[in-house]
Amino acid sequence: MDDGGPGGRGMSMGRKIASGDLQLLVLALLAEKARHGYEIIKELEERSKGFYSPSPGMVYPALTYLEEIGYATVEAEGSRKLYHITESGRAQLDQNRSVVDSMFAQFERVGERMEHLRRAYSAYEGLTADLRGSKQMQSARRELKSALAEATNSSEEEDRIAAILRRAAAEIRNKPAGGS
Question: Which structural domain, as residue segments, surrounds residue 166?
Answer without folding.
Answer: 127-173
